[in-house]
Amino acid sequence: MNGLDRALFLWINLGSGTPKMWLDAARFASLTLPQWLVVAAVTLALAGPARQAAWRALLSVALAAAAAHVLKPLFHLDRPFVLGLGTRWLEHAADSTFPSAHACVMAALATAVLLTPARWPIKVLTLAAALLVSWSRVALGLHFPFDILGGWCLGALIALAVQQVWTRLAKQSAA
User: Fold this and answer.
1) Which positions ≥6 away from 139 have C-beta within 8 Å?
2) Pick from 114, 83, 104, 117: nearest CA to 148
3) CA spacing 20 to 30 A to 72: which of 48, 56, 144, 175?
4) Under 8 Å between Cβ of 154 and 67
5) Can you list the positions of beta strands (E) in the chain?
6) Shortest CA distance to 147 belongs to which of 91, 107, 88?
7) Cα dihedral value 144, 149, 152, 153, nearest 10
8) Which residues touch 78 (CB under 8 Å, ≥6 apart)?
9) Residues of the chain scoring pLDDT < 50
10) b/e burial code for range 42-56 (CB count within 10 A of at least 16 → b)
């Protein structure tokens, strides 16, 4: 952790005087919103008009979650609350903080949706939801901003790789 990461964390982390509305929004974004987005993607994959795009998004999400969980033990970085920084608003294990699995999964989903022919409101809403979830992890005292940035980089790269491989396989099967 560096000074910039620490300063950004302390600026974003919700303090003891935070209105309940902000805490409720952060908790919703962290605990409920990701589940709703995955359910929406599964629904689209099974019954939606853009099934292939939804399957690509789900594959990206699954690979991003797996990658984050494989990489976390390789980085022994403490969470802010372990270091006594900020306010922790959710219970969480004191495991490694880098990369943020929530941010990684949400970045994979947002990138996958941005790579589809979906209409721009869907793309904007998905990106906004991903940013909201990522913000909530810092606001609730669970991650440093650079954990989020690392998760975003990993998730976006995974979604781009899935798109590339999917496109190549589709071209090979069409030939």
Assistant:
1) 12, 13, 14, 22, 26, 89
2) 104
3) 56
4) yes
5) none
6) 107
7) -140
8) 1, 94, 96, 97
9) none
10) bebbeeeebeebbbb
Residues in the chain: 175
Q: Provide, for the chain, the percentages of residues in helix, strand and coil under a 3-state DSSP scheme, each rounded to the nearest 5.
A: 70, 0, 30
Which residue in the block uniquely carries the two structure tokens 């669970």?
A: 142
Q: pTM of the full predicted structure?
A: 0.91
The tokens for 35 are 């589940």
Q: What is the pLDDT of residue 41?
A: 82
Q: Which residue reads 């970045």 in tokens?
A: 107
Instruction: Give me the pLDDT at residue 100, please.
Output: 96
From the list 53, 158, 54, 55, the residue with the least C-alpha distance to 101 is: 158
pLDDT score for 1: 58
Closest listed residue to residue 41, CA positions, set 149, 145, 122: 122
